[in-house]
């Protein structure tokens, strides 16, 4: 195993091979360590979910939450998903972890509803391996049953590459999921390869404009054009559209002006632990009304 060979070479002091660089070694070590620790993280209860509000632009109110996975590593601290999801995917660990995510998110949503904090949508991200799992639909149905959550409140986020890899299979799975009554959205829309004709055939409900287009939406004419195109494409196909990564008032104003349905981003809130979400819901945190945003009057 190449990673281990490099590790040994370093250990015995024979670290002057031509291919050796400290960066590679550090990377390999981190990978080995994370892979090992990932196997025990679930039973050690080291995962947690944080939630990011999704806000309706017409009402200004929180209408949903996206559940985002965090790993509290005892030594490394908070490990972001980009550093372990890929590995979890390769090792298959994503299956039990993903199942935990769905169960925990649905249970949380039900708890909020029972506490009178509102009827919210809950979005969860699905990985490729989960999507091709035989009993995916059954296991989601079981979670809905167990938690008592209404199916139409669960939204499953998929990426373009995930549904475009095997289109016929994907359409079959998406139809089964739709039959359960859950909502389906395409995450990071515009960054992958997707054919417009398939988009029409997929039984999806929501497009999420990738944050890479939102970032310079008010500065870059191309990004603005792409965002506007996605909004009108979504509406033409009778889909909802939500913009990710909204950080500034200018981006918000642009999205309002161009009739985007919902936003998600640091401007309103980062992804935060359940308790902080509860506080937002109790306080009725919402966006300032549209008129104030669009007004030319000085404040
Ligand atoms: P994503 O699903 O596209 O989630 C959006 C990411 O953008 C989140 O990063 C979120 O914290 C971040 N974000 C939100 N608002 C802003 C903003 O205004 N500015 C900027 N710069 N970033 C913003 P996070 O939580 O680190 O997650 C990264 C990715 O990891 C997610 O992208 C998703 O693909 C994946 N992921 C997270 N949780 C899960 C999970 O439970 N299962 C799977 N399969 N993937 C997950
Ligand atoms: Mg997502
Ligand atoms: Mg995204
Ligand atoms: Mg992403």
Automatic annotation (TrEMBL):
Q: What is its main location?
A: membrane
> What is its subcellular localisation?
Membrane
Domain of life here? Bacteria
Q: Which UniProt keywords apply?
A: Membrane, Transmembrane, Transmembrane helix
Q: Does the keyword Transmembrane helix apply?
A: yes
Query: Start and end of every EAL domain?
Result: 31-285
Q: Does the keyword Chloroplast apply?
A: no
Q: What is this protein called?
A: EAL domain-containing protein
């Amino acid at each position: 195993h190449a990673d281990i060979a490099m590790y040994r070479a370093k250990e015995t002091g024979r670290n002057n091979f031509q291919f050796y660089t400290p960066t590679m070694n550090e990377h390999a070590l981190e990978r080995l360590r994370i892979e090992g620790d990932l196997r025990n993280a679930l039973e050690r209860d080291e995962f947690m979910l944080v939630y990011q509000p999704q806000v309706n632009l017409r009402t200004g109110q929180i209408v949903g939450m996206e559940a985002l996975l965090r790993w509290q590593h005892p030594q490394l601290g908070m490990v972001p998903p980009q550093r372990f999801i890929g590995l979890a995917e390769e090792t298959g660990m994503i299956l039990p972890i993903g199942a935990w995510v769905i169960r925990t998110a649905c249970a949380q949503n039900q708890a909020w509803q029972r506490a009178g904090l509102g009827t919210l949508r809950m979005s969860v991200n699905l990985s490729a391996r989960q999507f091709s799992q035989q009993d995916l639909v059954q296991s989601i149905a079981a979670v809905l049953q167990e938690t008592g959550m209404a199916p139409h409140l669960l939204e499953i986020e998929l990426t373009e590459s995930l549904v475009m890899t095997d289109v016929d299979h994907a359409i079959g799975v998406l139809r089964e999921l739709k039959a359960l009554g859950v909502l389906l959205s395409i995450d990071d829309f515009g960054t992958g390869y997707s054919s417009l004709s398939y988009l029409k055939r997929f039984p999806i409900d929501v497009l999420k404009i990738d944050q890479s287009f939102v970032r310079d939406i008010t500065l870059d004419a191309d990004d603005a054009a792409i965002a506007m195109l996605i909004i009108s494409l979504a509406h033409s196909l009778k889909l909802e559209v939500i913009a990710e990564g909204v950080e500034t008032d200018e981006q918000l104003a642009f999205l309002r002006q161009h009739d985007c349905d919902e936003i998600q981003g640091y401007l309103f809130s980062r992804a935060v632990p359940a308790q902080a979400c509860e506080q937002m819901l109790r306080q009725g945190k919402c966006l300032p009304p549209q008129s104030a945003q669009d007004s030319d009057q000085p404040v």
